[in-house]
């Protein structure tokens, strides 16, 4: 999942993320530049019955995204912070993304 997320980040930074999206999902990816400096964090299971962020979301996994603040001029930035994945039987696809403002300094 970490490798897939790194591939997703790279694809989204180039505006070519659509092949990662689940068929029935309406995922907001923002601008390609929103993905600059991001890397995959730690994955964990997603329980749609207990989730506060995305209750009822048809996803099995959640992975946080980390940002490197080195070289960032802004004091804050609105970024994708978590990616939710659905299992497809043979692979995983992006079911949703959480965005949040990250403050630096």
Précis, in short:
The protein is mainly beta. 11% of the residues lie in helices and 37% in strands. The protein has a four-stranded antiparallel β-sheet with strand order 1-2-3-4, with helices on one face.
Structure write-up:
The chain is mainly beta and 105 residues long. Helix content is 11%, strand content 37%. It has one helix at residues 2-13, and strands spanning 38-45, 61-67, 76-87, 92-103. Strands 1-2-3-4 form a 4-stranded antiparallel sheet, covered by helices on one side. The radius of gyration is 13 Å and the shape is globular. The N and C termini lie far apart (30 Å).
What layout of secondary structure does this protein have?
Layout: H1 2-13, E1 38-45, E2 61-67, E3 76-87, E4 92-103
């Amino acid at each position: 999942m970490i490798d897939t997320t790194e591939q997703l980040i790279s694809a989204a930074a180039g505006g070519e993320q659509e092949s990662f999206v689940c068929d029935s999902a309406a995922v907001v990816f923002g601008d390609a530049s929103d993905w600059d400096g991001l890397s995959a964090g730690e994955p964990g299971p997603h329980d749609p019955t207990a989730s506060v962020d995305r209750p009822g979301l048809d996803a099995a996994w959640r992975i946080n995204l980390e940002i490197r603040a080195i070289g960032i001029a802004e004091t804050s930035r609105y970024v994708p912070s978590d990616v939710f994945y659905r299992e497809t039987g043979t692979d995983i696809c992006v079911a949703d993304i959480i965005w949040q403002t990250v403050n630096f300094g």
